[in-house]
Amino acid sequence: EVQVVESGGGLIQPGGSLRLSCAASGFTFSNYWMHWVRQVPGKGLVWVSRINSDGTNTVYADSVKGRFTIARDNAKNTLYLQLNSLRVEDVGVYYCTRGRTRWGSYSGMDVWGPGTTVTVSS
Amino acid sequence: DIVLTQSPLSLPVTPGEPASISCKSSESLLHGNGNNYLDWYLLKPGQSPQLLIYLSSNRASGVPDRFSGSGSGTDFTLKISRVEAEDVGVYYCMQPLRTPFTFGPGTKVEIK
To answer: Residue B41: its chain A contacts at CB < 8 A?
Structure first.
């Protein structure tokens, strides 16, 4: 079964750090670009970051640039998101999702995990 | 950044009746490869987002054929031919043409 499962969320004080993980299975992880998307409580979906298939190219939303770092370990089929200098406005459910293939084929963000919740509060 | 607007933001529907959601982009989403880079996602209460339509008109695997997408350039539409009770939730359009990817504000579909 093709799936991704996020973990690592929790309650953290403003200014603190967390590392989110996303374990992929059922597909060749190294063939896909991956993304993190956040569901803002009571609001909508916000794209956070993406990484290409070999991890050499990353892009971030302006709101997290310089504070968050996306990375991947293709040997472990795992995607990461390091969250530093957390702010109250970073709260939400963070989803890992699959994007385009390394060859450029795009079929939507077709695999989503259950998400992991980040709460930032003092 | 590319801005997506959706209308309506709230859509009360009657089961068995059709429904339609509009998504307009601040820039053309037509790529040089001929594809329009506009997706539709559904966020049901208590669930993760699910892909409905990709590249404007391609139905994702497992999505019922009552869902269809159309449009090109800056104007796109998601149609449900006959709404079912399980279709309630918030529908989002999203552009994957250029980073930062952006989502529309969402359209909340609820049963009358």
So the answer is: 45, 109
